[in-house]
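Here is the promised in-class demo. Please do not try to memorize the tokens; focus on the logic of going from shape to residues.
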């Protein structure tokens, strides 16, 4: 039987990242409303290649995360082999991603402006306001 503990450590910071271009934000809005048809609680990927093509400064955001991780004592090799995904959500339900991602950790970077939303980790006692540049590292088994 496999088992593991779940860390209650949640690392957070607010990074200075470039603002996504209005054209790309409009594309994300179209994508989420027309193609994805997100219902309350849904989390789905957006086309990352299209975002990279329309927003070359996206790489600066990834570099900002890498620099922030270094200030926390986390080495560059931790980020390099990581999968990068661009995700859209509509008020995600409480969940954890431990079954899908096992012993991995998540590093999320929020790219959009403040919409009055937050990321809540009820068992760890953290509630993090989501503004553009909010970076969060947490155990995938941590409910959020």
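The designed amino acids, position by position:
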């Amino acid at each position: 039987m496999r088992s593991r503990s779940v860390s209650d450590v949640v690392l957070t910071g607010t990074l200075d990242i470039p603002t996504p271009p209005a054209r790309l934000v409009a594309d994300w809005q179209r994508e989420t409303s027309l193609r994805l048809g997100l219902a309350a609680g849904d989390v789905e990927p957006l086309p990352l290649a299209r975002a990279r093509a329309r927003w070359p400064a996206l790489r600066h955001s990834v570099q900002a995360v890498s620099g922030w991780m270094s200030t926390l004592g986390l080495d560059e090799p931790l980020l390099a082999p990581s999968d990068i995904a661009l995700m859209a959500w509509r008020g995600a339900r409480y969940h954890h991603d431990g079954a899908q991602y096992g012993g991995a950790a998540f590093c999320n970077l929020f790219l959009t402006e403040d919409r009055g939303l937050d990321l809540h980790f009820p068992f760890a006692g953290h509630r993090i306001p989501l503004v553009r540049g909010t970076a969060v590292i947490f155990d995938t088994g941590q409910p959020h």
